[in-house]
Specification:
This protein is of the alpha/beta class and about 375 residues long. Helices cover about 35% and strands about 10% of the residues. It has 14 helices and 10 strands.
Length: about 375
Amino acid sequence: MFSRDFNENPFIVIWELTRACQLKCLHCRAEAQYRRDPRELSFEEGKVLINQIYEMNNPLLVFTGGDPLMRQDVFDIAAYAVKKGVRVSMTPSATPNVTKEAIEKAKEVGLSRWAFSLDGPTAEIHDHFRGTDGSFDLTIERIKYLHELEIPIQINTVISRYNYDYLEEMAKVIEDLNCVLWSVFFLVPTGRGQEKDMISPVEHEKVFKWLYDLSKRVKFDIKTTAAQHYRRVVIQQKMREAKEQVAEIEYLDALTKEGLTGSIDGLGRAPKGVNDGNGFVFISHVGDVYPSGLLPVKAGNVREQPLGEIYRESPIFKSLRNPDEYKGKCGVCEFRYVCGGSRSRAYAMTGDYMESEPFCVYVPKAMRKEKQL
């Protein structure tokens, strides 16, 4: 993994198989619909796409939606990818589609991980967020069956003002459910997600420090999404603990210096921060290619151009992979190659994906020096 050049190949590919879904989640990026779109990539087109993904140094592939299980051919697509040698995981919605038969089929075709969403420690909080009564209970029930089949479980949680006060209880639920990974998403106001649903910049920082402390005392791994500045907090905390003072922050150094070993997000991932369009690519249900599902700036379509060509040559992707071009404090921050801020949140709040992360409280050294002069 450490040899991957993000200018050439992504670390992770997200494919939105469909936008059809039975839930009405408050934060839904996709503004999912009840019925499938007839323009979705077909099974044959999907096979061509999977071949292209595999040729990009075989990144991780995640099936998302909507609800991937709304596609009857989802396991045929998964089987093709797995036989090709691609590592596939899926993030279905907790609906009646998640039958025991569906879970058994997932195991049979060789899905490497199953991800469910839990957005609160109780049915009241979770079901409110998901817009559907019974979602919490169904999720817990299906997780138990995943354990029976020994399929690793990832829990995705969107941090918002609705669950900010219940994170300690939430962590206890993750631990009790014996999950391998807690993937914590920080709300970006796109799709149905609203700015009023977000926690404040100061609350972001508090959650980051809490997550870092939590990571040292739980057995599950913790990963963050749309929270690139969590990496900065982790490095700062590790350096305080190691009592090391360094003039320059280099991601690889920060991870390999004595006393600073371990990965930023618990997964031993890449030697620099994955960000929208930088190690990350999203393909919509109709084949449109975006830097991420939360950054709705189209760079091409796989029906017209190979995925690798779009990822490597699109001016949008190229600019996103150059932190020196970032504007405001992100552009001068000493953590810009590690962090870079959420490009999708910058776009959602300012209309410019190269602007500063608007929900970061950190003041870069360069700006502090300017004030002192």
